[in-house]
Amino acid sequence: MNLSSLLRVLVLGASCLVAQPATAVPITYRLSGVGSGHLGSQAFTDAAFVFTGVGDTDAIAPIGGGVWVNPLLSLQVRVSGHGAAQGAPRGRFLCQQDVWRPGLSG
What residue range is the signal peptide (predicted)? Predict the structure, then answer.
């Protein structure tokens, strides 16, 4: 192998070792169940609900005690028989990893 070929191999090998930056992507969280409460001014009892939130994988961070949090970019709440409401992007998705317990906070 001549010097020129060796140099090409070294440059190619070194370029493979350079770390590429991670690219954040949207992530959708969906929590559902049956419950009672209020959607706006409308009360509901024992109704099926779905919370759908979108976050950014680059924003996921630990907050201690095995709990990770991701601020939501959008949040939609659907309650059976009562339609849907689009929430302000103030909510956060939480996950306690040791027991795999998800949740939302406002």
Answer: 1-24
Asked whether 28 and 54 are in contact (CB, 8 A), the reply is: yes
Helix (H) or strand (E) holding 10: helix 3-17
Cβ–Cβ < 8 Å for 62, 92: no
pTM over 0.70: no
Can you read off the two tokens belonging to residue 70? Answer: 């991701």
58: Cα separation from own chain's centroid: 9
Number of helices (H), then strands (E), belonging to the chain: the values are: 1, 7
Start-to-end C-alpha separation, the chain: 64
The string of pLDDT tens digits covering residues 26-73 is 999 998 999 998 877 889 999 999 989 899 999 999 998 889 999 998
